[in-house]
Fold each of these.
Amino acid sequence: MQELGSFRNKIRDLTFKILELIHERNNVALNIAELKQRHGLNIENEEIEIKLEDDVVSFCEEKGINEELALKVLHSLLEESKRLQGYTKQSVVTPMTVASRAMSLASAAKNVIRLDIGEPDFPPPNSVVEECSRAMKERKTHYTDSRGIPQLREALQQYLMTKYKFSCNKENLLITPGGRFAIFAAFSSIVKEGQSVLLIEPNWPAYKENLEFAGIRPIVIKTSIEDNWDVDLEKIKESIRKTTRAIVISYPSNPTGKIIRREDFKAILEIARDYNLYVVSDEIYNEYAYADCPSILQYDVGKFILTSSFSKTWAMTGFRIGYAVSDKDVISKMQKVLSLIVTCVPEFIQYGAIKALQAEEEVRRNTSIMKRRIELAYNEIRKIDSLITYKPDGGMYLFPVSNREDFDSSRFASELLEKRFVAVSPGCGFGDYPRAFRISLGQNEEKIIQGIRTISEMLG
Amino acid sequence: MQELGSFRNKIRDLTFKILELIHERNNVALNIAELKQRHGLNIENEEIEIKLEDDVVSFCEEKGINEELALKVLHSLLEESKRLQGYTKQSVVTPMTVASRAMSLASAAKNVIRLDIGEPDFPPPNSVVEECSRAMKERKTHYTDSRGIPQLREALQQYLMTKYKFSCNKENLLITPGGRFAIFAAFSSIVKEGQSVLLIEPNWPAYKENLEFAGIRPIVIKTSIEDNWDVDLEKIKESIRKTTRAIVISYPSNPTGKIIRREDFKAILEIARDYNLYVVSDEIYNEYAYADCPSILQYDVGKFILTSSFSKTWAMTGFRIGYAVSDKDVISKMQKVLSLIVTCVPEFIQYGAIKALQAEEEVRRNTSIMKRRIELAYNEIRKIDSLITYKPDGGMYLFPVSNREDFDSSRFASELLEKRFVAVSPGCGFGDYPRAFRISLGQNEEKIIQGIRTISEMLG
């Protein structure tokens, strides 16, 4: 077995040669850092990185190298370069700092108006509470199938059929501990480290956070209030790289309240199909829609994962239950992750969720309350001259943008909270929107009006 | 800025050179695969890999290369070699296949005795069920601090003080959706891809599964029934590599029921401290202890994470709630992971858990029931000549080992289930124990006895 020994030595030598080159590469990165510092240059090179990733994929195709391996190694190298160049995220006031400061002010007995958190003040349906209690008392307090109890998945099948005429098997459904987990499991099932995912900003911070946690590059397509938050389809096409595996969409939008036109929605699905991307459609706000709102389940175009949750429609944030719909293989991968990390969703809560799916009256009530709040809040905020606000088609937020060039919403949110005890979320949490902030309509009308009037006063 | 351009070209060139070498390395791996196939050799090289990892760390120290980066790249390369060599896990009957087959048999109206799942058949304390219901009705149905509600963390402080005279701050505690999540978050907070963690086998499969999910190498220290499941301290020391960041211990043991001697426990903590390792002590079965059982909280030796759960002691499996205790920094990292993936544990369940901590009577009852089951089951199983069984010091399992050299517990478990409708977990799920199987004492005495008698009949 001399041959084996000699092959093994070769493997060993090559391993160290690879590390030598990595070392050399890091040293060049340090040279660049020094140069940049000397000339006061900005440190990020996202474009260069993305180009390099594309070229690496081409190189792999040409040479027959496993692309996943190459992209993962490249990602590690790029991260190291950033680390060596002293790249750190700018520290600004984020929605999280506002939220935690608001919480501590509130617990210090200050009367804080919480227009920051995306949580409706409605009660959950009585039938859900009753059913959870009943199920708990009847000893539905055991481990369940990690995909969710069959009864809930059947009820969900029925619900999706009634609502969208969408027909699927139980194997296409996964019950998750909240919409967040569905997003996390979705990404970990369809995208690998070093690959990329398209995001349309502004959007819910959790997408980017989850991608970054997994070492996946978010490729951002910005939209703007000047374009009515419409997404430019050409920009989507241009943004797709060889590394891209999915695009995330979510309408009604958090934070803008925008609902995409059906023709644009369909066009995105077609682009995704043409480029073999998964569409991750987060439809958590789908009941709070006051204009025609497309669902991915109404289209038979390509690969998709729908994520949703009982949190908003049924005001069940504190129950931590959501779901995902996808093809059998993806659901099975997502199930493995769920089973590994949390085993399953609490059994009695799953029973409660069955009742939620039948709670039509409460959904109607919540939906109409939210509609009134949007009208009211929009009419109030439009009185403020320095803000431009899109009138939401749905969702539960306003996302006003200041027309003052130098407006800094992080500072504004911070002052508004410290001086006037009103909490809003600065725009930086939702993308590159320093002049915008998000107002949540989770509070009652009185608080919303009072909050917006305080904002008006602060803005002078 | 010609200089910048030239540095960038250099980075680019080096990147492709690195990939060229990776390609070359992969080709050598293919050569090895071919050679091995030709000579019918076994494919795994764990020892060689571990040696290479160690050498890579030395190399990094010498050259000043970031060790984390190097180990991550090395891990990716090793995985690729395995993939190219067609390495796949042996497909055997695992505890999971038994469990899912048992579930489907059971739902086909077969009267299956489930001695496989680690779930007590006791009811959760009434006070917990009542409190969850009350809290739900009083609208404790909102997002909470991702670390857990302060009231529960205070109650836990008090509980740990009473039970172990352990004093800590609320910042040292994290409420998690089950013990599994605590393990997952623990690893992701203290170990990186390509590094390693020591495991003492046989043990709960979730440790290894979680490590593998994160690309962390499990280094296994085997124990055997011949040594009364005692762990060899010298073996622990010898197993520690330069890549090792933590050791996992869990007593009373799942599956053996072993409780470690205090002197050995302390010795492990001291070894860990000397080598700067974290001790992850999973104390989920700590109430089911019928001999003196050490807790990590009773020792002030080095870095640790305690993980635990309300599942076993309080029979709250289906509530999905557990906790972790550690230093402030680790808890804060674990909190970030929790907040990213699941936001928080359902609010009303956290209120219920407060009552669990006060349910002394139920704990005493459950503990004494489990003790009786252990006695009874042990007395029954020892009648079987071909099995050697350690008499459990605690926990809720028996882990008999066949004295027949050729006994295959996977096949046995499968036959036992298919022919006699008794489910047990084959030993391969808990490590390299093909002659052992686990009997869970989660069922009532009658079923346990009936199950063990059926086993006896099957074994002839």
Note: Chain A touches chain B through 93 residues (CB under 8 Å).
Amino acid sequence: MIGNFATATQVHRRPGSTDTHAVYDAEIAKGWDIVGNANGGYLMALAARAMGDLAERPPLSVTAHFISPGKVGAVTIEVEAIRVGRTLATMRANVLNADGKPVISVIGAFSGPRKGTVQVIAATPPVLPPADECIRTGPPPGSDDVGFRDRIIGRYPAEQVEFRYDRPTGKAEISGWFEFADHSPIDEYGLLLAADAFPPVCFNLDGSPRTWAPTLEMTVYLRGLPAPGPLRARFFGVCVQGGMFDEQGELWDSEGQLVAHSRQLALLPR
Amino acid sequence: MIGNFATATQVHRRPGSTDTHAVYDAEIAKGWDIVGNANGGYLMALAARAMGDLAERPPLSVTAHFISPGKVGAVTIEVEAIRVGRTLATMRANVLNADGKPVISVIGAFSGPRKGTVQVIAATPPVLPPADECIRTGPPPGSDDVGFRDRIIGRYPAEQVEFRYDRPTGKAEISGWFEFADHSPIDEYGLLLAADAFPPVCFNLDGSPRTWAPTLEMTVYLRGLPAPGPLRARFFGVCVQGGMFDEQGELWDSEGQLVAHSRQLALLPR
């Protein structure tokens, strides 16, 4: 049975943990993988759950370095509190596989509730067709479950996913609607997942292979808790250079609030 | 005596260090502080020097969380190699003050030489007046040394630094020319400094106090080694919300190559 996002990111603190050092048992859940490897945002969310548990507050800024693919199965998460202040807690963590090898290494700031008032905003949500006029990628309803792509619904303006037919836009950009397939609410942890849930922007570059683009590093700023409903997301790359590309993301909630900023550095597919 | 950037960021590995765990002695140098607190990019560079020494290669992506102000004086840097691969090494470090309290906590990927070929670029260097027509901030030549502002030369289009006379542009943006005051060459470590060397973009917001804007987190991608000469830099914020603002940076070398991308999350001055 494949659980929802909340159950698939459960973590269990081991006895003997202290206020500053704790070990968590968790599982990379089946159904959240892409051909056997867990989605990067899912891994970040798993680590952040353990860090947020020890910090006793949700994430504000999370950075993950991706070291080895996350295979379905047991992992341990070693969490260390660097400093716990009144409002902010700085935490770091390593997610280790069953062989004790690092999968991701994470640092983050965790913070209690903050006023969401927007004072200045120099960006706007992407202009998207209504969700039902967008292309939903992934397998057709009723087909065999293939993993991660069945856990989320991404709906894209048709021209932005023509790369599937070898007609990329030529511009490192993909935008669309995001929600969980089971309509689970999206909290800070869900935003970490959403920030890495779309096809990589390099898929829209001319001549780019459309295979795995391994993320080296991803940082997500959680700027607000989303209002209910699907998110609007826009991802774009600024520079493809030296075999690497950046992908920046802006995630907006149904009320037009910028709820997350993401940025990653990834290797071009080969 | 105030040393140049290279001598001011020297680190010394302690005997007894291993390939995966090392402790470095270093000093937050006088002259690189702003009213007694070290510049954030300087602290990142100091940590990255130790991490790069253990990794035996320069930084590619560095993230720092700023925990307490860095006062001039001795620090220790505890470096841990999470994984050292053939091309990439993932490292983390804590910089501790003389009391053993964390100043910054850092994670980074370090990488050997990489091809700098630009394949796609969706940004352009800022359009700036010639350096000699820009405003150079900081004290006039010959005045008493006040610290960090005497180590670097920032030259700005006049209208962008009118905030000094309480005439902000109203737009969260500052661009200009950057170089070391002694014309030291700018390597990957110098880029870490340059990414945090300009006044915070919030200084150009209407009604913002122009005092310390504490950085919570900063990530810098080192996309290439700069050609000789001053950098052109553009910093801009996308969202001011909940008492925090982001500041994104693009740094360009004299040949028009994007050499670094930065992003930070900071608290609004109060």
Note: Helices of chain B lie at 5-8, 40-55, 188-194.
